[in-house]
Write a structure and sequence with these properties.
The chain is of the alpha/beta class and about 250 residues long. It is built from 7 helices and 8 strands; from the N terminus they run ααβαββαββαβααββ. Strands 2-1-5-6-8-7 form a 6-stranded mixed sheet, with helices on both faces. Strands 3-4 form a two-stranded parallel sheet. It is globular. The protein starts with 11 loop residues before the first helix and ends with a strand.
């Protein structure tokens, strides 16, 4: 049974930002390979497998109590939404959070829109076309306006410039003490374990030399340069990690 939908009024400042974002479209390069897919309701087996365990982590860190949050709506921006499955699974559990999906690949919008429209709590917005290498100001966001940023399986399956942009935008557009959550496999101290992750990294770099597992130490340094700190590391199934970053 899904949580009961609560009726709430979006604050004028947030509504203005949402109106601006809904008009923002910036067509840019495609990092994903989907053979020109433009239909509806993609189902990625990996997303189906990991969405439950990621949700359990989100429940630890998302403040979703309406009264404790003084009636304000929180804004959760997902970068690289892919099929749209993750937000469709998450959103009904946080009915007072507004979820904004985004993608650099407009071919995926049909699937993302399908899941957003089917959400029983109606708190998923239609997708924005965002190239995370660019400032979020290009897409209607104002500095320190986001309560959460989230990205799964972007950092290792995109050029490193995307990771740089992700942390730069987190430093500029998250509110003070707000969180960014990232999910995927990583190396540590230059070492990749176990062998399955070594093989995965090799296959990624064979497909695109600019892809590959990133090292935690490099990400921590990048975060610190953008006033963001790693506050928790959660071990996940299939040798993945969920990293919790906090805006200083």
């Amino acid at each position: 049974m899904h949580p009961k939908v609560r009726v709430f009024k979006i604050k004028p400042c947030l509504q203005a930002a949402l109106n601006t974002m809904s008009k923002s479209r910036d067509f840019s390069s495609n990092f994903h390979e989907n053979d020109g897919y433009t239909g509806e309701k993609l189902v990625y087996p990996a997303a189906t497998r990991n969405q439950g365990s990621i949700l359990q982590v989100l429940k630890r860190f998302i403040v979703s109590d309406f009264d404790q949050n003084e009636g304000e709506n929180q804004l959760f921006l997902e970068i690289a939404s892919g099929s749209g499955q993750h937000l469709a699974h998450f959103a009904p559990n946080f009915p007072n959070v507004i979820f904004q999906p985004s993608e650099v690949d407009s071919n995926l919008f049909g699937s993302i829109s399908y899941y957003a429209s089917a959400c029983p709590t109606k708190n998923i917005l239609q997708p924005l076309l965002i190239d995370i290498r660019k400032s979020l100001s290009n897409y209607g966001f104002k500095e320190e306006s986001l309560d959460y940023m989230y990205s799964a399986n972007l950092i290792h399956i995109s050029p490193y410039e995307c990771t740089i942009g992700l942390f730069q935008n987190a430093g500029n557009y998250l509110k003070s003490e707000a969180l960014m959550i990232t999910y995927g496999p990583f190396s540590k101290d230059g070492i990749i374990t176990p062998q399955s992750n070594v093989d995965f990294d090799t296959s990624l770099r064979a497909k695109n030399p600019s892809w590959g597992l990133r090292d935690l130490n490099d990400l921590i340094k990048l975060a610190e340069n953008n006033n963001v700190s790693l506050i928790d590391t959660v071990e996940m199934p299939a040798n993945n990690l969920t990293l919790i970053w906090k805006k200083d």
